[in-house]
Amino acid sequence: MLKSARKQQRDPEGRMPLAEHLRELRNRLLKAVVAIIVVTVVALIYYKQIAEFLTGPVIDSVGCKKGEGIGGGHPEPCAQITANGLLAPFTIMLKVGLMTGVVVSSPIWLYQLWAFLAPGLHNHEKKYALGFVAAGVPLFLAGAWLAYAVLPTTAGALVGLTPSDWDNLFPADEFFDIVTRMVIVFGLAFELPLLLVLLNFGGVITGRRMLGWWRGMVVGITVFAAVATPTGDPLTMSLLAAPIVVLYFGATGICLFNDRRRRRGNPDAGLDDDEASDLDLTPAPVGDVEPVSRPDDPEDPGPTRRNGYDDVT
């Protein structure tokens, strides 16, 4: 049985001893690993269906038809997915199961990461962090789906480079390595706008600065798409770069709205640490003049004088 790290009374400021932090980290990691293992085991049971789901669009796009296999005299370049070696099907099954476990269980291990960081956050920061986790999972899954959607186009562009008298064999382990890399790269790329929003809510960058970066960001995203996609063809690059650019401008709009909301509560919120705030130096109007009695006026002795002063000082 795991010893809970939260049975004792919680510190109102979220402070914990080092041993409690390590115990909490162990419990969170174990829960995340158990979730991945459980999903992986279920994925191993349906390994063939998942493998066919991943390879189906590629086979439909560039697969050799019956009678047009290796040495079949096919008119256009085509490919066949093969398993090389006696242990290849077993290792491929483990790769497919583990990849499915990590992707499908992402809501659980992302929540465990947030739950480990939450005690050190303020109440309003906890609300924002939970929102980031809730938005990060759909963004990651959207990137993974996009990688799966562009995979047939990528395979078609690569196979199209094959000379007409050559044949293509796709080793299955190499194919699933490419699929895994594309899923991770596309999924993490979709997290970029969320990271920028996180930095804005933390006061690191402003929406106006992000808006000023738009030209460089568009060029940088395009270069990243060219490097991240295996083919580098314009169509695949556009399929990756265009959604990220749209998400970037969406994140910029959220940051501008947050900056405006923050300025309403604090006019100096947008200033740098070494920047002086604006001071209103307009002279204030002077009120009505109060009549003051003369000390030598016998009709108006005024306040009691002590040692020549009008008050007790």
TrEMBL record:
Region annotation (Disordered) ranges: 266-313
Membrane topology: Multi-pass membrane protein
Compartment list: Cell membrane; Membrane
Main location: membrane
Keyword Acyltransferase (UniProt): no
Pfam families assigned: TatC
InterPro entries: TatC
Highest taxon of the lineage: Bacteria
Ranges annotated as spanning the membrane: 29-47, 96-117, 129-151, 178-199, 211-229, 235-257
Keyword annotations from UniProtKB, A to Z: Cell membrane, Membrane, Protein transport, Translocation, Transmembrane, Transmembrane helix, Transport
Similarity section: Belongs to the TatC family.
Its job: Part of the twin-arginine translocation (Tat) system that transports large folded proteins containing a characteristic twin-arginine motif in their signal peptide across membranes. Together with TatB, TatC is part of a receptor directly interacting with Tat signal peptides.
Complexes and interactors: The Tat system comprises two distinct complexes: a TatABC complex, containing multiple copies of TatA, TatB and TatC subunits, and a separate TatA complex, containing only TatA subunits. Substrates initially bind to the TatABC complex, which probably triggers association of the separate TatA complex to form the active translocon.
Protein name: Sec-independent protein translocase protein TatC
